[in-house]
Amino acid sequence: MRVIAYVVAEERLMSTATFGTNVVDWETRVDVGRLRAERLSRLKSHLEGSEVGSLLTFDFHNIRYMTATHIGTWAMDKLIRFALLPRGGEPVLWDFGSAARHHQLYAPWLDYRTDDEITRGVDGYSGARAGISVLRGAFHPSSGIAESVADKIYTELERFGLQNEPIGVDLIEMPVLQALQARGLSVVDGQQVFLEARRIKTRDEITLLTTAASMVDAAYDDLYAFLRPGVRENETVGLVSKKLFDLGSEQVEGVNAISGERCSPHPHVFSDRILRPGDPAFFDILHSFMGYRTCYYRTFAVGSASSAQVDAYKRCREYMDVAIEAVKPGATTADIVSLWPTAQEFGFADEEAAFALQYGHGVGLSIWEKPIFSRLVSLDHPEVLEEGMVFALETYWPASDGWGAARIEEELVVTAGGAEVITKFPAEELLVAGQRYFTTGGFLPTERDSQSHINNRRQGSATIPEPA
To answer: Residue 19 pairs with which residues in a beta bridge?
Structure first.
């Protein structure tokens, strides 16, 4: 019976339950040791099944997946640190200055000495070393930094007899690529190996993704209470960012705040526009908790919504609902996108012009992972959905008034029986935020045109008396 109880407990860990963000001794939460081990095991397995002899990464997300190290979001676009995984070996990380020393002290999983060597203080084979790449060209080309990177990589590959095997790389700067090739290394695309490894999430990854979404639930609650005429889009970005950081977010990657006439076409960037009565407003909140991210849209109406906006929302929601209902193991991305409208149906010339409006993408250590859902690619190159995938589905529909639009996004975990939605802030119907106004006849309707004379004509205005 005790064994059965343990198995049940393990199964429950695979669910989308959320816990507190602290470490406690009285409840099983995220097991970070297991998280590190299972991620690296998946990556090694995919490396073994590939045609490359090693994987070299300059991408922060892949470095974290491989080595479980992080030095802050300030460096994510610098391409300054790099890590190597040789076939049959363990990860080696070259990090920014003193960060390498920090890893040697606090990341024992990168210390490859035996217990006896550690006890005797022997300098062993450490997986964390000081090293720097070319700082996006800031180092002088003649400084030899690119050549130094190539030398470090070549030495490690030579230790494993892999210097003549292809080396798979995700992102790379041209001077480093040329230096590696000058050493005789065959550099090929390794991005697919990384993305295939990250495609199915472990139980701890699912818990972290769900926790990240729960933090956005709270941010949307604050945002709903805050929206009103006079608020600017950039103020909503500040409000959301503070809430997320207060809850323990590692990075607020972006808050897309779009309102009023800016909703159609979707500009994908916030501004300082002032919200007005009757405005549609939609938001995308992207942040990470322990590296695991969200992509999470919601649409609101400020004070009231026009009939055109209500209709747009209903259609946007219907496209979302039929897509979610079709998600199950064995279904394909083509099955999902075939339920969505073509680009021409909502005013675009082709699928490239409408890209990312009816869309889906994996979510994990980065915002866009496998699988991708888009009519641009999925009908001709479908991907099979599998249990343990986590992805976001996004739908969009422009209002018939020519300026409003609705945007909804839900994150899903693929389960044995279908899909479980982990983005919980209400989105079944269009929410109206802001002050509720009274008239002499009672509450002002929440579905009304922002042009008052149109509402009066629809409802029947009072008879204007003849002049005396």
So the answer is: none
